[in-house]
Amino acid sequence: MKNKFTTYIAFLLLIGVVAGxxxxxxPNGDQVDNYYFVKVGNVALPVRVCGNINSDIAIVFVHGxxxxxxxxxxxxxxxxxIEKYYKVIYYDQRASGFTQGNVNTxxxxxxxxxxxxxxxxxxxKQIAKVNKIFIHGISWGGGLSTYYLLDSNHQKxxxxxxxxxxxxxxxxxxxxxxxxxxxxxxxxxxxxGKNVDYWINCKKYYDQHPLITNKEFTQHxxxxxQVNGVGYNTSNVQIGTVSLPxxxxxxxxxxxxxxxxxLTYEGQSIFTHLDLTPKLxxxxxxxxxxxxDKDGLLPRDNLAQKYVSNLGSSDITYDPSKYLxxxxxxxxxxxxxxxxxxKAFIEAHK
Amino acid sequence: xxxxxxYLLIVLLLVLTVPKNIxxxxxxxxxIIKTDGIKNKKYFVTLSGIADVEVMKPININxxxxxxxxxxxxxxxxxxxxxxxxxxxIVEREIFVKPTFGYIYRKRYNTAFxxxxxxxxxxxxxxxxxxEINFDAGYMYxxxxxxxxxxxxxxxxxxxxxxxxxxxxxxxxxxxxxxxKKHKTPLAFHFGPNIFYRYPNNDKWVRRIALEFxxxxxxxxxxx
Lengths: 350, 224
Known about the structure:
The structure holds two protein chains of two kinds.
Chain A (H helix, E strand, L loop, with lengths): L1 H20 L9 E10 L2 E10 L4 E6 L14 H7 L3 E5 L8 E2 L8 H17 L5 E7 L1 H10 L2 H4 L4 E5 L5 H22 L4 H13 L5 H13 L22 H14 L1 E2 L2 E2 H4 L13 E4 L9 H11 L5 E2 L12 H4 L1 H15 L1
Chain B lengths: L1 H31 L7 E15 L5 E16 L2 E3 L8 E18 L3 E15 L4 E16 L3 E4 L5 E4 L2 E16 H4 L4 E15 L2 E19 L2
Antiparallel strand pairs in B: 1-2, 1-11, 2-4, 3-4, 4-5, 5-6, 6-9, 7-8, 9-10, 10-11
């Protein structure tokens, strides 16, 4: 009987050991795929360093949300192509995605998020061993990247920034432009007699909720999705497989809500107070701005032109005649064009 | 007539006295044949495999293990009539304290080590099948599973270790079979779900669900 008992124990131990040692698929010889954490205070930010192992250039991807994650981004075809040439740094922001540790509500400020990004930039130079860094921020991440670049010391560390549909003026972009965009769409749908009741209810919803705060944001997103206001050219989106950290689903869900609920700019909610327009003139480094024409979440008219007009940089790449088939995610919706433009920008400013 | 009356009295006397004699005989046997296992000492050591399940697409399963000891603090057997008076059925009702140590490994995320002094109520039927309910309140330390760096005051990065502390609350429901109840094999196994909440994660409670399969070595000693 003792022998049997020993066998059972050995079997269970074996299961544990095998589970603990299953390896990730190895990257190709010229590719790197390393996983780290960067500790900032009480939190550990997950950082995945991927791409061309010989490249001296890294692109730090700043994800959206707030409360999203960068760890699934590699699945998009855009990054597969970029990783052939450069290193790409996928990191999750505090209280977002697969980040671990406890963040108090008082620590949920854009200032702290910017400090975290600065840690990642320094980490990229020292541990990922590159000399030239570009940042690529999308949506909320575009707003965060913009805020980060307001500091001239930060600008010295960066060769250039790719800014995609940035949430740099959420106050007007969401409260006025996005709201008007969806109400206009609702009128159009009612006019053509499509789901009339649904769109009448939609209009009532906005009458009853004059402000889009963290509480209304999810419902607002649902309405936008009904009319392709977030993703328009979805048939061109190509998503592959990607290995993810074995995180906790409940944490990822909680983080998404927590970040939206408590993220502040100058002590007040980003939903109602974030507007960096008056400070954009502080940004002097090369900027490539990409904005989808069909974006309903942060409508291009007139956010894009206002961004370009107020930047302090003399080196701005922006073409309003491009990305006409994209909404809020041009790097996924028109990734072939984005690849060409991003590579040209990076090569011109490396 | 007198004979008939005497006969009836004898019969009546027999009828009234015989059952009493039978019961007395039964009691007598009870003194001689002890009900096996009614008084016993019992404790056990359990080794469990844990599958922490994330119901997402694809389903994410993370494995772990735990070791616990079951120390009985309350025992209230219940005797039920069997087929005969010589084979009564004993239902065991027990409360255990179960100090439990374990871990759950999450690749590229963390290894969570936990200690839970569980309180468990176990109801074991006569055949050895049991149901167990556990109430858990314990401590968990999660150590992140990748090289971790921290920026120093001089701007350089130094490799550090990082983990965080959580309080955990939860419970488990198990079904199992105790071979030591009817047979002489000192083993038991159990299977069931457990659910617990850890705090704090961004000042909130976070739920975790896991399945557990365990095998126990049961020390059962009949009291004289």
